[in-house]
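--- STAGE predict ---
source: upstream dedup step, 1 unique chain passed
mode: sequence only
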Amino acid sequence: MPKRLRLTRRFPVAMSEDGYRRLKKFAREAGLDEGEALSFLFENFSSVIDDDKMTARLRLFNAELDDRKR
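--- STAGE serialize ---
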């Protein structure tokens, strides 16, 4: 029997406009709301990412982070 989806945690999140647009697009395409889409992504994190690409993207993101904050 599948686990019941209960969205029990709410937390303030700061996201870039690009990140939020991509989240909304993913949620819309999947037929979910933004909270359900985030729950899906994090519950299935290890099976929906490519470890090598994630590491490279994270390194690039961190390198550009200070400039992006200005």
